[in-house]
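Need a sequence for this fold. Nothing fancy.
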């Protein structure tokens, strides 16, 4: 592995010169970082992961092996993207135009997925653009997210639906009555009001 300006890049990774990479970030075997992507400090980009042109990753983001993050996705600090998860960017995917001509970049408009601070996307989950996944939410492995996910929500299934709440530690919260919830790991209390969860 080579180290340049505090960034560690595997010799087999493909990092475009126009990408901005924060200090302490590590980019592993066969990962690809495209032009104009911005990665914050202390990120970890796993084997075979892809970061599209102009994608923005905050600090301390983890992309596990073969995660695909298509432009113009925006990931906040502390986001986790599990192995082989996909963040899409084409609302109406087609290889060709209605007249049969191969589509070019001018024939469609990329739309991005937005992931809030501390949120986690499980292995092989798919986030269909232009959804937003809220802060500290947890998308279960294999889920397909087609609608926005609230902060602290636990969503599962195809299409993804909320089945509970999680705290910052990622553990399911325990109901304690009167629309209050408790994190079994940290002891933090949360309050649910109108389908929105906030920390107390």
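Here you go.
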């Amino acid at each position: 592995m080579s180290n340049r300006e505090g960034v560690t890049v595997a010799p087999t990774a493909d990092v475009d010169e126009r990408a901005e990479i924060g200090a302490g970030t590590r980019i592993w075997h066969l990962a690809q970082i495209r032009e104009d992507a911005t990665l914050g400090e202390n990120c970890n980009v796993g084997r075979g992961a892809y970061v599209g042109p102009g994608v923005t990753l905050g600090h301390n983001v983890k992309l596990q092996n073969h995660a695909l993050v298509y432009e113009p996705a925006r990931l906040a600090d502390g986001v986790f993207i599990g192995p082989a998860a996909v963040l899409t960017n084409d609302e109406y995917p087609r290889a060709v135009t209605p007249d049969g001509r191969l589509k070019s970049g001018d024939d469609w408009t990329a739309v991005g997925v937005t992931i809030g601070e501390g949120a986690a996307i499980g292995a092989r989950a798919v986030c269909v653009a232009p959804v937003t996944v809220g802060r500290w939410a947890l998308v279960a492995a294999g889920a397909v997210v087609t609608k926005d996910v609230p902060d602290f929500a636990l969503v599962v299934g195809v299409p993804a639906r909320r089945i509970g709440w999680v705290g910052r530690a990622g553990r399911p919260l325990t109901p304690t009555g009167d629309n209050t919830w408790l994190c079994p790991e940290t002891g933090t209390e949360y309050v649910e009001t109108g389908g929105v969860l906030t920390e107390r």
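For context: The chain has one domain: 2-166.
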